[in-house]
Write a structure and sequence with these properties.
Structural class: alpha/beta
Radius of gyration: 18 Å
Oligomer: single chain
Distance between the termini: 41 Å
Number of domains: 1
Strand order of the largest sheet: 1-2-5-6-7-8-9-10
């Protein structure tokens, strides 16, 4: 599918967005906004909002939907958490979202780097809320607990797609493992808002999406995001379908009927898009 439907096209806003980019560059920080080629990055940068991508910019996994660079990552930069805190302070963020590349090369999967980053943000922005979007830590309970015990207000872990498509879309991940992570976060700390997201347009059926929503509610997930998969390059998976806006509205209605406390469902919705809106409604 080469031509984009009208509901996918979006103007990239400039202006203040350049100021945000310059700040991030001056502090040598990565964002998932740029690394994953998010269609909303111009809008968010213009609002002086960014989702920090920690532990470098190179991922050890080779998911076929993701634009983040794959390969052998550099050693951890132990000054990075401090710089994330400084960027958060300069941007005046009231809700800070931290995600990472997957680092299967690290013994703890980067769990303590998440902790260090949370602590640095809280030093300079003690009244801001924090959201983490973590990898699966290969299912290691001890690494998950390390992050959960730091009490981020929101713990996000994406299932990304329906289980049938995992071998193609996320060959090194496990649907059941991802559900277990969300379940364990709630069991360890019920007050934390749990969140997950998935893409559509990869060849899934509507009933499969509804089953994922039911599974997420079954493990106590509070907030869900649903967005259109967009092919980052010819090397990535093809778009099978551009899902029309009315279907996203239908998914949103179903999700709320299942008991989700917050739902963002739309063609250009991404995991961290307007994340502060949902945490503000829940706390």
């Amino acid at each position: 599918m080469n031509s984009l439907p009208s509901w996918i096209k979006k103007r990239i806003s400039l202006g203040e967005g350049e100021e945000t980019q310059k700040l991030l560059q001056s502090l040598s920080l990565h964002t998932v906004c740029e690394s994953a080629r998010c269609p909303n990055r111009g809008e968010c940068f213009a609002r002086k909002v960014a989702t920090f991508l920690i532990m470098g910019s190179i991922c050890t996994r080779r998911c076929r939907f993701c634009a983040v660079e794959k390969g052998i990552p550099q050693p951890l930069d132990f000054e990075e958490p401090r710089r994330v805190g400084e960027a958060s302070r300069q941007l005046g963020l009231k809700h800070v979202v931290i995600t990472s590349v997957t680092r299967d090369d690290l013994p703890d999967g980067g769990a303590y780097h998440f902790v260090a980053t949370i602590r640095e943000i809280r030093k300079v922005l003690p009244f801001s809320t924090i959201e983490v979007l973590t990898p699966d830590f290969q299912g290691r309970e001890e690494d998950l607990q390390v992050v959960v015990k730091e009490q981020p207000e929101v713990f996000n872990h994406n299932v990304e797609t329906v289980p049938r498509l995992y071998p193609v879309v996320r060959p090194l991940a496990s649907y059941e493992r991802s559900l277990t992570i969300l379940k364990r976060v709630k069991e360890i700390s019920p007050s934390i808002i749990t969140k997950s997201g998935l893409m559509v347009g990869l060849g899934e059926g509507k009933e499969e999406v509804l089953e994922v929503l039911e599974d997420l509610r079954g493990v106590g997930c509070d907030v869900v995001t649903i967005g259109q998969y967009l092919r980052p390059s010819p090397r990535h998976l093809e778009v099978k379908e551009y899902v029309p806006p009315q279907v996203f509205t239908w998914y949103e209605d179903i999700a709320y009927s299942l008991g989700f406390r917050g739902v963002a469902s739309g063609p250009l919705v991404r995991s961290s898009y307007l994340a502060e809106k949902f945490v503000g409604e829940q706390l």
